[in-house]
Fold this protein.
Amino acid sequence: MKFWALPEINSIGRLPMKPNFIPYFDENQAVIGDKNISSWYFPLNGTWKFKFVNSPESAVKIIDSYIEDTEIKWEKIQVPGKWNLQGYGKPHYTNVQMPFSELPPNPPLNNPTGIYCRNFQIPDSWADRRIVLHLGGAISVVMVWVDDVFVGMAKDSRLENEFDISSYLADRHIHEVLIMVVQYSDATYIEDQDMWWMGGLHREVYLYSTDKIYFQDIEVKAEPVGESDGPGLLKISAELGIPAKYDSDLPPSGPFTLFVSLQDSGGRKVIAGESEKTNGLYNSLGIRHNSAHGGHRIFLDLEINEIRVWSHENPVLYTLVLELKNNSGKLVECTSIKTGFRKIEIKGNELLLNGKAVLIRGVNRHEHEFPNELAVSRQGMLADIKLMKKNNFNAVRTAHYPNHPDWYDLCDTYGIMVMDEANVESHQFYNELCRDQRYTSSFTSRVGRMIQRDKNHPSVIIWSLGNESGAGFNIEAAAGLARSLDSSRPIHYEGFSRDLWGQKENHLEHKNFASDIISLMYLSVEEISKCMEYIQNTDDQRPVIMCEYSHAMGNSNGGLDKYWDAFKTVPGLQGGFIWDWVDQGLKKTAPDGTTYWAYGGDFNDQPNDLDFCINGLVWPDRTPHPALEEFKKLAQPVNFIIANGETGQIQIINLYDFKNLNHLSFFWSVLLDGVNRATGEFFVPDLPPGNSINMKIEGIADVIKSIKKDHSLNTGREISIFLYARLKQKEPWASLGYQLVWEQYILPVEKSRPNLDYLFPLKSASSSQTPDISVSIKSGNVTPSLILQNNSTEVEIEGPVLQIWRAPTDNDIIRNSKNETDKVGYKWYSAGLDRIICKGIKAISHFEYISTYITEKDGLDVGTLKCLLKQSSSGQWNLELVMEINEELPELPRVGVRFKLPKGFEDLSWYGRGLKENYPDRKQGYPVKIWESTVTDEYIPYILPQEHGAHCDTRWI
């Protein structure tokens, strides 16, 4: 049977989904909670035998022959790891379009398929126990054989699949597991996310062992009785797995009792309890259909006098140890689960965490391997979380699928709120598959299994039904299942905020029964305001959260400050998730040995969407893009408002949701023309979250008075106040002294003038003579030059020439897009603005000329540039520029002039915003100081070369 082309079949022999826990030998192991030390855990990661073929049909024939004792010529592969990164097949990138031309549910005939094989030996201590094979993730269909017997199959590339292999183990010492993975299937059509298409066993593989009676499911609900530290309520539901048949009415050694204990991070037992005895049988065997208690389900509610609540700012976790014992007190099963006490609810258009309306400072995150990794690693995940915390993110949307289980453990521990998203995206067939009955169980099982796995994580605050998959009955069915499985968290789905057919304009008046959040995607601030006006005039009580905004592709994220102004001021608008975290570039080596980041098409993958996967705030190696500084500043948890800079009067606003400010040290600096003149520390009272305080910083006023008294420093000089806060102590995600927030205030003084001594270092320090500057127009050359002369030294600077071109950014032109001609970059190229030439220069005097420019492409008139060099009475030279541009040209990339320095000018200093590049619509995160760099270092290596390197508010260079 071709399971890979049957959407009605999602699995055969797969165990029901459960939270990510495994058994431990005893309470001591369980408290530590590391599966690697469990006596009942056996990893199968590492080198496997491997056979790569071009179709599942071929693979099935090979496996059938192998079972009949025909040898296979094996190669080797690493598990976990995508085979495309190990020399088998090739990575393939598309955004919306499928990587092949077939229609659902049919995969392509040329369908990469891998056969994995390895031997294993069961530990002696596992005799007569149940044995489970855990496959952390397989793209996209997996089929399993153990000791030559077919065990089962499963779909869903982003959730684990488990199989009970106990009855399949042959009576022999060494066992063999054979796994077949098919890259493309009917399921691929609902895994059409904006990412690389690859195949293989990309998450860990292991065995674990349980008793015959075991924990099939554990659900833990921990909530504060109120909204803060104090009494708490712990609700535990444990479902026992029982054998398929009994020789008698009771399972061996029953009845059973569940013993639990809750420990804090210091190992102190907070509470302990035990359940009533249960026989482990289904209630319905005794015709007790009206009873939820007893039988194979155990319920235990515990009231706790004093707990500390979990939040993203104070991620307090407890360890719950569960022990199942038989009637004689013997331990049958033991495991542990991390939990946190917190409450999620929606009231009055606000999403509340522990009673507080939290602002979502979020980002979308694809799972993308670090360079030289074959699969995502815990170390890589931790590096991402630390970098996010350092830059003031508090939430992640797992775009667009459930992440590796370790991700949620780390979010619990470090404090990141999670919108957990199901592995459902049918982007190319947006309108069809959400209404295709063949796919109903695929939609519902993916949502349901995600909830069943991740329900115990306090960091998960929202369930998302998927992404860009229409608004048909399959999504509605998934929403119904989600509500049935977990009513404690809100449901999100962006497709319910759109027109029913297609990704058209927003229609907010329908589908509120299926999504508890109004989710918006890529609306402008003006469009958001219109939506908010509509919502406020209805009885719709849902909060508004942008699931995607501020597309971070290349040199981008302009206008982010406008979004944040709206987030902080518009009621019911509760933040959002930037698209997205990491550039999905793959490291590749060119023929000359240099390495570069590859994107769609670099592997001869057709069709492809070129570099549309390169849209992160960080490079693939997690080096931050310059725009990350902008987000960090806008999202900072403390605001400084300087009421009167000269007297040091300020207001401090605590924007934390739950924290006071006693974990921060506060400092001030006074700068004169960008140079630090004085620095001090100031004390801030213990300010509760959401509160503000007005205070005076001692020392600032005295420094400013001193500067103003010194007349040599006063005229034309610029004074600024710099306030900042650093961590008082080491955090799990940052070192002692890390600067988390800052603000700068520039006093309104007389406009600063350039320091000619600094501008023209050729001038002798002992000379008061201003450099002699003249304009020279060389014969037969249409490029003017400025000649700077000082005594016997002469420097020729080519220019100024008219500059209306800049390289388009990624967002100026969406390459390979059907709407590419609508983008402004396309219009620039069509008009020939990328190549303009000087038609001629008319010299008016030794210090004045007019140059005329046309396009090289069509000879189209561009305009003129008039240059006049003037010298003031003080000896300072000024260059006056007048540009007249043809009004028939499209919107211009830029308007300015260009100079070209001779070789050798490498070191660079400037007084303005820095250190990283910034632009008029992205400059809030870059303070005004004197900065030093080099011309070489000012190059920003965006993966697709584009405009870069600007610095705003530059006083001099």
